[in-house]
Amino acid sequence: MKQRVPVSQIMTKVLIAVPTTKKLSEVNALFSDYNIRHIPVVDGDKLVGIISHNDILKIGFSHTGIDSEALNDIYDAYKLEDIMTKNPLVVTEDTIVKEVAELFAKQRFHSLPINDKNGNLVGIITTTDLINYLIAQY
C-alpha cells in the first residue's frame, strides 16, 4: 500500500455545496438527484456547516406514509441552519489518507470537508471514497 498519500488524491473535487438560505426540500432533492449523502453548507465562500441525508431523514421519519408534497412542506418548516452540523471538523488537502481514516474510525461522522492552505473549500472526502481507495490498492 502507498504511504503518506495526501487526501487530495482521493477526495471528491466536484462539489455540490448549498447556501444557508437553501430550502430543506431543495437540499433533499439534491441528495436524490446526485446520489450523494453529504453536502457542505456555505455562506458566500466560507464553509459554515455540513448536512447529511440522514439529518433530513430524521425529520421525515415520523411522517412516513404522507405524500412528498406534504413532506416537503414539513422540511421547509425548518431552516437549514437548524438542521446542519455547524462548524464541522475540516481537514486540509495535504492531510494524509491514514489520518482521515483514523478520524472516521474514532468519530461518528462519514464525511469531512477539505480546505486548501488558504481556507477555501476544495473538496470532500467520505467513507465511501476511502473504501474505494482501499479496494483499488489490492
From TrEMBL:
Pfam families: CBS. It comes from the Bacteria. Keywords: CBS domain. InterPro entries: CBS_dom, CBS_dom_sf, Diverse_CBS-Domain. SMART domains: CBS (SM00116). Transmembrane segments: none annotated. Residues 11-68, 84-138 form the CBS domain. PANTHER family: CBS DOMAIN-CONTAINING PROTEIN, CBS DOMAIN-CONTAINING PROTEIN CBSX3, MITOCHONDRIAL. This is CBS domain-containing protein. It comes from Myroides pelagicus.
